[in-house]
Amino acid sequence: MSVLAQPAASVVQSVDWLAIAPPVLTAVVALVVLVADLFVPQARKPLLGWLSVAGLAVSALLLLPLLDGDRSTFCLTKQAGVCSYTADHFTLVIQFLVLGGALLAALLSVTALKDAHGGLPEGEYWFLLLSSAAGAALLPAARDLATLIVALEVASLPAFALVGMRHGDRRSSDAALKFFLSSVTATAVSLMGVSFVYASTGTLYLTQIAGRVQHVDGQLHTLAQTGVVLTLVGFAFKTAAVPFHFWVPDTYVGAPLPIAAYLSVVGKAVGFTGLILVTVIAFPSYADVWGPALAVLAALTMTVGNVGALRQQATRAYSAIRLLAWSSVGQAGYLLVPIAAAGYSKDAQKSIGSTVAYALMYAAVNLGAFAVAALVGRGRARNRVSDYRGLYATNPVTALLMAFFLLCLAGLPPGVIGLFAKVTVFSAAVDAGLGWLAVVMAVNVVVALFYYLQWTALLFRAPEGEPLRHRVPAPLTAAITLTAVIGIALSGAPQLVLRFAGGGLF
Q1: Which sequence spans correspond to the domains of the chain?
Q2: Chain segment 376-411, per-residue pLDDT in tens
Q3: Can you say whether residue 256 is alpha, beta or left, with left for phi > 0 and alpha for psi between -120 and 50 degrees?
Q4: Of 402, 428, 399, 396, which is closest to residue 415 (Cα–Cα)?
Q5: Is 413 left (phi over 0), alpha (psi -120 to 50) or beta?
Q6: Phi, psi torsion values for 69, nearest 5 degrees
Q7: Which of 133, 132, 107 is nearest to 49 (CA)?
């Protein structure tokens, strides 16, 4: 019996306000900022940014009371365990990643908006960023397909506007258009898949779908299979997996740099979280379909991403941002490996823990690299890789931290956390019997070393011409310091990431 056909009394749902507090508070702060923008004079507009930063910090702190155990809300009263929102360990880890990533992007934005000199509307900017973060924080808690799609769109729609917010900038407009078209296509495909799944199973709840989709009536079996495939394809779009990656480089270059950083971490977390939920919880019986498909996607994605990064010319305008964009595509391939392995492994939870652990590592060091890129971009607007030459001579601490971030992404000491994360992902592939995928990953890791080490070496070479002195604003200092502290601390105790990410995910 479908949810819509059940008696009214059975769909009366309770609300656990503490469980939903992190995304709700983020959304409330977004509305407060939008209204306050109408009354705050132009000279005091920066206060809106600090209010947004404070709101994201408090939202992240609200995760602490939820650590004492799983909480669910919006549940069917006559069917125990069938809920639309669940704050379990997996939810809290991803919400921590999302809200932490949004907080760091907000710190970068405070400086970027100040440097824009009125070029970006501050009230709208902060409202859109917080709205997107609220949707992204809601998504990992979603346990039905309707909530999942709504959260996905709440996270995505404001991002379109943020990418194209630099009015009159052709690159920004082109980036927003590409991002919009790719996301709309992904949404359309996902919605069609969800409708087919609902038509064949009569439910939208993930746990109920898992039990019903494998026992669908023979006449509806093809419809169910098509729905599963389309749903997975739609989420593959959101992860920027090849061949759905074409929008990434131009979008990252055209967007304000803090938004590029936000998309590289939070946007990626949204796609991968949705993919994990539909594969592991809703469609485990189709593991023989999505397991091999995701393995092939992982191999293609990491290869294309690394080849694209290799082709970047150091003297090309915005080559530093393009290199980080292609690098993020390659990293997406590594993130896909454990999800694919979950389709072959008897311990899917362990495999998913590897993806979450890798995502946490990637979020910290990638945001750190973007923070340094924001600093260099203040003096070198074209932000070329060649602009980083001799950074050690003018700002040794920043150069050392940038080298650390790049070595973490490459998986080399002293970036121990990067090496640990890659070994964890590699082990997941081997344990699942995906030896060929482990070999492809190993080859790609070696290929990636070339452009990461080349950029790192450039930081310590003698500068050409007059060296550029970089004054580091307080928000940028805070962002760089936070990411550095996290990366260095985890490199000293890398096992903490896996323990935090993997314990009792679902």
Answers
A1: 286-506
A2: 888 777 888 888 888 888 889 999 999 999 999 998
A3: beta
A4: 402
A5: beta
A6: 160, 165
A7: 107
